[in-house]
């Protein structure tokens, strides 16, 4: 019975494909009308990204040049096709395609397919889809529990829900979760900076006035909040003051006490601003030389010329150095997380679990809304699962 349904659908699809061809007084859709319009939209998108500060002026100029080249190429190619010897064969080709494609698809599916057999690629993603569905279900359960709590739900629960929504890119939902806590007396600087991040995400990367207000509140509670300072710099940059954004970020780096994970994002943003302002580029080692995150530029350059065996020994030596340093500095939470990730990359599951477990112990003294909790917990679940 299902094959009869498939045949009917194929015939209907063929009829829809042939109808415009035989319909009298119907103007053909010209490719040159459609594609340049799409490319023109892309050109506008590049300009909007430049205005929002998402790309640099040099990047915007290069993108605009490439899109304009593609528009010119399409127009020239279409003009050639319209006046070329094969211009009259379009209708015949469309008729053949409309008839041949359904027949070919029917034959191929008869030999290689079956309605009750899932596609391999789709089947292979089953664990990933199951995990996504589980996260969605858990988020909904947490939301319902908090919403139905007569006391309004614990602030820690709302913060966890907001962070979960952020990972799911449900920014509007994250805003509502963080705002619930922001209205309470126990709201922290992190509460306000996470609210700012959610608002920025909900507005396609733009620091809107509501986000600016949240940033100001976060910095008023804790002037050293690195996330709030980063978004304050982003607001300055989008407002056209790249120099002030550069100074905000570099000043905060000078106030850092040793290496922290957020410093990498700062350095990347600073060096992007350096291209626009002509100010000097920086490196993490300029501010936290005692605790480098990874190999130096010289180490990377040397590794390129090594054999596979030598490169493996080189990587092992860096991991061992980090492990030795952590034995002497056991309270370095970020260091244990880096070591756990390194062991994970090296497929040393037992060592990775041990390193992440040490990080988890240190996190007991951290704030409940510390995002590193989720990273460590997920890593341990993946390793132990």
From TrEMBL:
Where mainly found?
Answer: other
Among InterPro entries, the record links this protein to: C-type_cytochrome_biogenesis, Cyt_c_biogenesis_CcmI, TPR-like_helical_dom_sf, TPR_rpt
- Where do the TM regions start and end? none
What are the record keywords, sorted?
Cytochrome c-type biogenesis, TPR repeat
Q: Where are the TPR repeats?
A: 155-188, 333-366
Report the superkingdom from the record. Bacteria
GO CC terms of this entry = cell envelope; plasma membrane
**Protein's GO biological process:** cytochrome complex assembly
SMART domains xref list: TPR
Q: Does the keyword Coiled coil apply?
A: no
Q: Which SUPFAM superfamilies match?
A: TPR-like
According to its UniProt record, where is this protein located?
Cell envelope
- UniProt entry tagged with the keyword Zinc: no
Protein's UniProt name = Cytochrome c-type biogenesis protein CcmH
Q: Which organism is it from?
A: Salipiger abyssi
């Amino acid at each position: 019975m299902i094959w009869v349904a498939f045949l009917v659908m194929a015939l209907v699809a063929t009829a829809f494909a042939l109808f415009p061809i035989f319909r009298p007084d119907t103007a053909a859709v010209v490719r040159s009308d459609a594609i340049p319009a799409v490319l023109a939209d892309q050109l506008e998108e590049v300009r909007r990204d430049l205005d929002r500060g998402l790309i640099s002026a040099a990047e915007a100029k290069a993108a605009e040049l490439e899109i304009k080249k593609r528009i010119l190429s399409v127009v020239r190619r279409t003009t050639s096709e319209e006046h070329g010897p094969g211009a009259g064969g379009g209708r015949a080709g469309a008729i053949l395609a409309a008839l041949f494609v359904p027949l070919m698809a029917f034959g191929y599916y008869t030999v290689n397919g079956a309605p009750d057999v899932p596609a391999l690629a789709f089947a292979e993603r089953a664990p990933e889809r199951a995990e996504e569905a589980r996260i969605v279900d858990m988020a909904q359960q947490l939301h319902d529990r908090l919403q139905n709590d007569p006391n309004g739900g614990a602030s820690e629960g709302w913060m966890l829900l907001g962070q979960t929504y952020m990972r799911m890119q449900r920014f509007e939902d994250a805003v509502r979760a963080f705002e619930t806590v922001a209205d309470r007396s126990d709201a922290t600087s992190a509460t306000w900076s996470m609210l700012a991040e959610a608002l920025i995400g909900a507005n396609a990367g733009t620091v809107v006035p509501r986000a600016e207000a949240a940033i100001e509140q976060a910095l008023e509670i804790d002037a050293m909040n690195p996330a709030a300072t980063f978004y304050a710099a982003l607001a300055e940059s989008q407002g056209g003051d790249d120099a002030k954004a550069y100074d905000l970020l570099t000043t905060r780096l000078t106030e850092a006490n040793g290496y922290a994970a957020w410093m990498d994002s700062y350095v990347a943003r600073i060096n992007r601003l350096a291209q626009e302002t002509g100010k000097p580029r920086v490196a993490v080692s300029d501010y936290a030389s005692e605790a480098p995150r990874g190999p130096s530029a010289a180490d990377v350059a040397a590794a390129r010329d090594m054999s596979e065996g030598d490169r493996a020994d080189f990587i092992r030596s860096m991991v061992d150095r980090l492990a030795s340093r952590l034995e002497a500095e056991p309270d370095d939470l970020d260091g244990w997380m880096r070591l756990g990730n390194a062991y994970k990359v090296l497929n040393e599951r037992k060592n990775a679990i041990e390193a992440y477990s040490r990080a988890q112990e240190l996190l007991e003294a951290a704030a409940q809304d510390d995002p590193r909790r989720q990273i460590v917990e997920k890593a341990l679940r993946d390793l132990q699962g």
